[in-house]
Structure formats: C-alpha cells, structure tokens
Design brief:
heterodimer, A: alpha/beta, TIM Barrel, 8-stranded parallel sheet, two-stranded antiparallel ribbon, about 40% helix, B: TIM Barrel, Rossmann fold, 3-stranded mixed sheet
Chain lengths: ~325, ~450
C-alpha cells in the first residue's frame, strides 16, 4: 500500500511585479526586442507550487572608458573591442548572448575622467545604435555627478525604457523625475539592509514613482565575500513580496561581475595560487558559482562579465527553468 | 521543531491508575509536568515500553542527525531545523564527497585518494575541505580499493555498491571506520540493512523521489537501521532540486517521519560549470551530502566556499575579531593599515593588500561591525579609539617605524591621532581598490 505523502505546496498571496525593459518601435523605442522579468508566484524555481513565467536574464557589462582594473582573464575576451563601446556591446550580444547590456558610466566620475553629461549621452546613444537589446545605464556613483548626468542621458534615451541606476535613500529625486519624464525604469539600491531596501522603495513611491517599475538592488557580495548576507536578505525580501508586501515585490538585480572580479579567487595569477587549480577556469567558475547562488536566492537580473560565466549562468537558468536537462 | 506533546497526549500513554508512585497525586498532574519537561517520564515505574518508545519517538527532532566516519575526520550531518537560514541557521555543513572508481590501477587509485585528502583550503581562518572519499564499485575490487583508500587518507569513506555480497566483503575490512554504505534500494534493502546494522554503519538509501523513499525507510527501520541518508535520485538537475526541497519541507514542516533524515545528491555530467551549478544548488537547497565526480581544485574550492557561506550563522553580526591580522608574513618594516571590524570591509581590505603583494599588518578596530563611514559617524572610529586599540595590540612595538595608514575616508582624523600618539599618520586611499597602487608606490618604512 503506497504511503500517502502530505502536500507541501505553499500558495502565496501575491506575484512579484512584472517589469519589462526596452521598447520596440511600437512601444516608442528602437529596440529589436524587449526583456521581461519578474511575475513569479513561487520561490525560485519551485515550479511545483506556482508559475514562474519569466526566466532570470543576464546583462553583460560595458564601460564608457576602457577599464584599467579588469584582470587579464576577463579583459582578454574583450581586448579587441574595449576601445569601441559599440563593438564591445555588439560582441556581448552577438557572440555571448547577453540579454541586456549594462553600460556603466565610469568615465563620468569626477575623480576619474570627469566626462560631461553630453559625453555620457553620446555613449548611451552609441550602445543603443549598436545593439537591439534593452539597456541598463549605471551611473558613476558620485551622487552630485549622477544628478547632472542622468537628466541628459535620460532624455537622450527617451522612450527606450532603459533601467537606470541607482537611486539610494540619500539620492533619488532627480532620477525619479528623469525616469518619470522619459519613461525609464529604476534600480533601487540599499546597503545589504532589508529595511533600507524598503525605505528606498517608499521614498520613490512617495515621490510619485510606481512601485511596479522598480528593481531592487540589495547590494551584491562575491562568493566568499559576504554573499550569505545578501542571499538571506534576498530570500527574506522574496518571501515578503510573495506574502503580500508590495514594498518587497520587485524583481531583484545582482551586480555580480563587478564584485567577483575584485576578489583574489578570481584575480590571482596562477603562480601566486598554484594550489587553487586552473587559473583560466578559476575566475569564470567563481563568477558563475556566485551567479548560481543568487539565482537560488531569487535574482531576476544578473549583471556579469566573463563570457564563460555568462554562458554557464544562462545554461543554469535553462536547466532550472526545466528547458534543458 | 519537533511537534510538542501536550499533557493530554502524554496522559493517554500513562497507566491512568493515579497510584501516586511517581510522587504526583494523579497521572494527569504527572503528565503535565512531563510535558513541561520538569520531570522525566521514567519517574513513573509503571509506564509501558511501548508508551516510552512512542513518547521518545514523538519528541525526537524532525530530522535525524547522522554521523559518518570515526576519529578526527568524523562528519555529522542532518538535524536541521529550518528551511531558510535567516530563520535560525543551518546547523551541520553538508558533507562534500568525491567519487573514485574501484577499477583504477592501485597506484592511480592511491594517488586520487591522496589528492582528495589534500583538497583543503583556509578561508577566513577556517579550514575547509572534502569530507568523504566515495569509492564506487565499477567492476573492480571494492574491498581492495577500500584497503588502498584507508592507507592513503584519514577521510571517512562512502562505499558505493549495489551488490550486498561485494559490499559485505568491503565492510568486513573497513566497517570499523563507520563508512556510509550506499545504496539500499527497493531491491537489495534487506541485505544492505543487515550489513549496516551489524557494522553500525550509516546507510544511504536510494529510491525514486520522496514517494519511493517514504516507502523504503520504514522497512529499514524495522530491520534496525536508523542512521539513514536519503537519495531521491530522480534524473536531472531540476527534478533532484525539487525532491530535495520537498523532502526538507516534509521533514520539517509536516514532521513526516519516513523522510525525517538528511538527504544526499549526486552531481553528474562533464562540463565543470554544469557540475558547479548542481553542486551550488544542492548545497543551498538542502542536501546534507553532495557527491562530486571531480577533484579539481578550481572546481571544488568554490563549492566548499558556497557551503562555508551558507552554513555561516546569520545571527552572528557581520563582524570579525578586532586584532592585528598579518598578510604575507610581514616583517618589522611592513606597513600598518587601520580598518574596521565590519567583515565585508575587512575582507575587501585584506584582498587588496594581498593583491598588492606588499606584506602588511591590518589593525582591525572594534567598531561593532560598522564600516568606516558609519563607524566614524557613530563615534566608534575616533582618534582616541584608534590609538587605544593600536596600543593594546602592541603593534607599534612589532614594527621598526612609527607610521600608520588610516582609511582615506577618515583623513580628518590624521592630526588628532598624530597629536595623541606621536605616530606619523599617512592617509590611505578612500576606496580599498586603491590599496595596491598605494602600497606599491607610496609606502616607505623610513
């Protein structure tokens, strides 16, 4: 006589908000495809208890200035294109299957090249004309400068439905106004703190920005460097979101490449750490494994760098969505 | 949590004679005290063995704890209490096993086993490594392989063989080391259970999904084997993950006894990235043991790190011990860098110092786990605190210079520290990423 197994499926009261990025001609933009994330009615890849309509996606990172601190393993695959933003973006999309391009406006940093808002807008335009995928535009992180740059950038990309970031609890008004005026989505950043994550969303909402157009960026730690704190904050946020908390029901973005390629497990040359094995594979595996953990915690958008890690993350997503064995 | 028995539940198991031999006037009064855990059930001299067993059963934790191996390398898994680490913590880090076929030439087998034993790394002051050598019967001599393995490692073994006779021969040789025997299946379970019971070994159980396992485990218990590790064995990544999640929920949320055991999962395939994806997912989502087909360090180290991270106690604040850390064997002319004990800050600084290849001391100040700016704003990183801490550590007695490097974000503290201590204060970079260039280009001890 077969044993009766209790039903352990949970049903949740709310789906995660669905966020579409990019706009085609019909939608007022020039993208050849749009990307939709979110909409989950279950915990990550718990297909047995609820619908997961949109797979997580992978954005690849390009910079407006050639990066100096990318170590060789992740620089070499782009060495031939890093001088040309458009070619770099095209390579990410055409050769490596990036679902999105994440343009980081590092060159605007006042402590770096201090590029003008107009130069930033030109960089955004160059990526937009070079690829058909939707765009994430990430500021240099200097609040004053970002507030000068984004009004110009937002206008230059008007109608393209980009994902702009980041807003923080200390700096959100300009970006909210820009995103509202030119119809973009926003990344809400918080420093590994679930209460601040909520607070940023509240501030954006109070400033008139719709909660369903936000993406949560809870900060990202590399594998071995605080990932567990972010992992648990993501699990808590996702449980709260599914449980009915509208302030935590946004898709989640993880900025993986930037973190991983700063740690020694990814960077150290072979001669420094021979006991860590194949140096060619070590960095990409560290980036991919970081991505796997975040997928399990509820990531919807992964920002990544190394082509092998991107390939691996996309493959893992297909396996976890049941599309491939 | 185990289901809590009420006084009434316990009362029903008692003789209900109100004899008073337990010291309480009624059985009900006694039952209430037992439920409150103020009195042990054996104070009742008349309680039946069945009742005692039933009571013990009901009070048992929802997931059994299983120990594999003996001696220093013993590894204990299971006994988990939550589905999400933020609810409490994950208690017993899952065992990481690497499989080795028994048909390898002896020397190669010995080399493989040694290689697995040497896969040990130190991260955040903790040694992490592989825990089990999984010897897989593939037509070779399992007993001989076990013998070779024991000569070449002190790691506990897992013996993988479906034939109870061959398994028996190997267990005769190494059963005293409490290897994990695998697999008991619907076909061979009787003989496997007998082996596990006779040699007091934990037993891996393989059946199809939660349903198959739930039918098999009661039969194994009837044969006297309780230390079980469950392998739901569906083909493929997603089905395996799904079963691991279901079993964990059934065990903890439903206290469903037939599945109240630790679980295990096999990582399979050729592509190291595919393997890493499975390994990471199974470690995050509830396997108490994962069996890997590869021992390459670039593949094993990230998975050991996933395990270390996931099993970190989330209730312990993001702080590390405040003291002086040494990077790269620093000597008396090495720089002294000051930072806070926020773990992420420290790891970032440590990583950058290592990248610089300049041996250095990192003097970590107790800021209650706050980063540099927050600690400064909160008056936990002041000139006074820095000077007092560095004096306590005695770090300036260990170096031949009198310079300290403070984070660029608190450059404002420079003069005050200098006045208070007489040390020369150098303002370091604002961002840790600037440390390598700073140490290489600007640091000079004299």
């Amino acid at each position: 006589m077969p044993i009766e197994i209790p039903d352990v499926r949970e049903s949740f009261s709310q789906a995660i908000y669905t966020v579409t990025l990019g706009a085609t001609r019909d939608g007022g933009g020039t993208r050849t495809k749009v990307v939709t994330v979110g909409g989950e009615k279950a915990l990550p890849f718990h297909h047995f208890e609820g619908e997961i309509p949109h797979p997580p996606v992978v954005a690849m990172e390009v910079w407006d200035v050639p990066p100096e601190d990318w170590p060789d393993p992740v620089r070499m695959p782009f060495a031939d294109v890093m001088g040309s933003l458009g070619e770099w973006a095209r390579k990410c999309v055409e050769e490596h299957g990036a679902d999105l391009i994440c343009l980081r406006l590092v060159g605007c940093d006042p402590n770096g090249e201090d590029r003008s808002p107009e130069e930033a807008a030109a960089a955004v335009k160059e990526v937009l004309t070079s690829v058909g995928v939707p765009l994430i535009v990430w500021g240099c992180g200097n609040p004053e400068k970002d507030n000068e740059v984004f009004p110009v950038v937002g206008e230059a990309a008007a109608g393209e439905n980009c994902l702009l970031g980041t807003i923080t609890q200390d700096n959100y008004k300009t970006l909210v106004a820009v995103a509202t005026a030119y119809k973009h989505k926003l990344i809400a950043e918080s420093p590994v703190d679930i209460n601040i994550a909520k607070q940023v969303n509240i501030l954006a909402m109070d400033a008139g920005y719709p909660l369903e157009d936000l993406v949560i960026y809870p900060s990202t730690g590399a594998l071995g460097y605080g990932i567990e704190y972010v992992y648990s904050i993501m699990e808590r946020a996702r449980l709260a979101g599914l449980g009915g908390d509208k302030l935590m029901a946004q898709p989640i973005l993880c900025d993986i490449g930037r973190e991983v390629w700063g740690v020694k497990e990814a960077r150290a040359p072979r001669e420094e750490q021979p006991e860590w094995g194949d140096a060619e594979l070590r960095g990409p595996l560290w980036e991919a494994t970081t991505a796997y953990m975040y997928l399990l915690a509820g990531a919807d958008i992964l920002v990544m760098r190394h082509p092998e890690a991107v390939r691996a993350a996309k493959r893992a997503i297909r396996m976890l969505m049941g599309e491939e064995q | 949590m185990a289901r809590k028995l009420t006084g009434l539940d316990i009362y029903k198991l008692l003789p209900r004679t109100n004899c008073g031999d337990c010291g309480f006037s009624t059985c009900m009064a006694f039952a209430m005290q037992v439920a409150a855990k103020r009195v042990a059930l054996d104070k009742c001299p008349h309680v039946s063995e069945e009742a005692a067993a039933a009571l013990g059963e009901a009070q048992a934790p929802p997931m059994r704890t299983v120990t594999i191996g003996t001696g220093d390398r013993t590894w204990t898994v299971g006994g988990e209490t939550v589905l999400f680490r933020h609810e409490e913590k994950f208690h017993r880090p899952c065992a990481v096993a690497v499989r080795v076929p028994d048909d390898l030439p002896v020397e190669e087998l010995a080399a493989r086993v040694r290689e697995i034993g040497e896969l040990r790394f130190v991260r955040i002051g903790q040694e992490i490594g592989v825990n089990l050598v999984a010897l897989e019967h593939r037509g070779g001599d399992l007993r001989r392989a076990a013998e070779v393995a024991r000569e070449n490692t002190d790691l506990p073994l897992m013996l993988m063989c479906e034939d109870p006779d061959l398994m028996g021969k190997a267990v005769e040789l190494c059963g005293d080391g409490r290897p994990l025997l695998y697999p008991a299946t619907p076909e061979n379970y009787a003989a496997m259970a007998d082996l596990a019971r006779e040699h007091s070994c934990p037993l891996g159980v393989r059946a199809r999904g939660a349903e198959g396992l739930a039918e098999l485990t009661p039969k194994l218990r009837e044969r006297g084997v309780e230390d079980l590790v469950l392998d739901p064995a569906p083909d493929g990544f997603l089905p395996t993950l799904t079963e691991l999640i279901r079993i964990r929920r059934l065990a903890l949320k439903k206290v469903f006894r037939p599945l109240g055991y630790p679980t295990m999962a096999f990582v399979a395939g050729d592509d190291p990235f595919d393997l890493a994806a499975q390994g990471a997912a199974y470690i995050c989502k509830y396997a108490s043991a994962v069996v890997l087909p590869l021992a390459r360090p670039e593949f094993v180290l990230p998975l050991l790190t996933v395990r270390q991270n996931i099993y970190t106690d989330p209730q312990v604040p993001l702080a590390i011990e405040a003291k002086v850390y040494e990077v790269g064997n620093p000597g008396p002319d090495a720089p002294v860098l000051v930072t806070t004990n926020f773990a992420l800050t420290y790891f970032t600084v440590e990583g950058e110092v290592e990248r610089s290849k300049v041996p250095a001391y990192i003097a970590v100040i107790d800021t209650g786990g706050l980063g540099v700016l927050n600690a400064y704003a909160d008056d936990r990183l002041t000139a006074e605190v820095i000077v007092k801490s560095l004096r306590e550590y005695g770090i300036m007695d260990r170096v031949s210079h009198n310079k300290i490097i403070i984070p660029g974000l608190v450059a404002v503290l420079k003069m005050e520290i200098q006045e208070e201590s007489g040390w020369e204060v150098i303002v370091g970079p604002e961002d840790a990423a600037g440390i390598p260039a700073f140490l290489r280009n600007e640091w000079k001890p004299d």
